[in-house]
Structures are given as C-alpha cells and as structure tokens.
Amino acid sequence: MQVPWGHYLKIILSDKPTVGALMDLCEENYAFISRLIPDLSNMQGRDCSRSREHADLYLEILEQSRYTSLIHLTYYFDSREKQEPDPDVVLKVYHDAGQVEVVDLKQSVLPLHSLYDAPGLQNKWQANLFVSKWLAFCVHQGHQFP
What we know:
By secondary structure, the protein is an alpha+beta fold.
C-alpha cells in the first residue's frame, strides 16, 4: 500500500505522529526493502550494490529466521585514515507482517536521541522517515541486491 506523501507532510507539519502513521511508514519501508533486496529471506553474509555514478551500497545480513531478517545497510565514505559509514542503519525486516523497524540509526544529518526514550514515538517517526527517504533514494539510484 502506497501512502500519499501529503499524509506524511501533514504529520511532519503537525509534529504529532500516530502509531497508525508509523505502521504505514514501516510498511512503505518494507516495500522499498523488497525492491532493493528481492530475495532477502534467502540471503546470507555480505554483499555490495555497485554503482559507477553513485556511492556503493553495502548490505550485511546479521540474522535470518523464518519470519524475520536483521540487516545492516550503509554507504562507506573515505575520511582521513579509514572509511566512515553514513548513514549506518540496522533494520529488522518482518516478512510475515510486511514491516521494517529501524533498530539503530547513525548518520550525520538528523540529530536523533534514543529511539525508545521519551518521546519514543516522535523519535521512531523521525528515524523511520529518514530511512524511508534514504531507501527511496537508493531505489531511485538503481541499487539492487541480486
């Protein structure tokens, strides 16, 4: 189910996300993950979606079970002596429910506090909205894991 962008814009402007809106966003994130990683439930290990024109996207499967996958997605950028991941996200993919939950998010653009500290719903909303826009960007760039 694709939720119209106007729905999210109203929530962003009102600054009051609801649990239902968060679940819609997690469902949208599942649709993006399904396009990026069509065979996710059968994958193991690490992989890289390479691009000549864009940053390479790195995937690591952290855990696989019958109904869920725990994955790590990131870009790596060269800094002084090492590569820095940014954004750096761990996602729990619920295949049976068609949902994606942000477990951990580190990035330099959006200041986030703990996902589960008060106001937890607001923090989860911001993290999932950021991830949604990033996943959409990755899909638009043509990234896909075989």
